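Hey L., structure's done. Input below.
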Amino acid sequence: MDNIADLISKYGFPIVSAAGMGYFVYYVWTWVTKEIKPVIGQANGTLIGLIDRIRMLDNDLIRLNQKVETVLQLRGKTIEKERLIAEAEINVDPLKKKREEEQARKEAEESKKKAEAEANKNNIRRPFKATEKEIKDAAGDD
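Output:
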């Protein structure tokens, strides 16, 4: 302590304090360059690697999301189509369907009766078509 007091009395307080601050700056600079800078460099390398991995994962997530959206869109169209068919089947009036079936059956019966009446009216006989074997058998040719 006497040493510092002698320096202050000989050179003055501002000069001694400036020299002390200079030593403090030198000490902090050497500490940062020897101990902190290498650690920051390693952390920077690790950070760059992590950023690259995050980008790859982000790209993978984007691709996967697109695939899922495509599948959901295609499945949604299928589901919508199935829903519309089921809805149409549910909304069909059962009496209307039965009436349409009866009407079709009646029309078929009426057309059959008309054809029979026409055939009876004109006494039209339908020709019998025999096969070649029946003709040969009837002729007795072997």
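The two ends are 150 Å apart (CA to CA). Residues 93-123 form one domain.

-- N.
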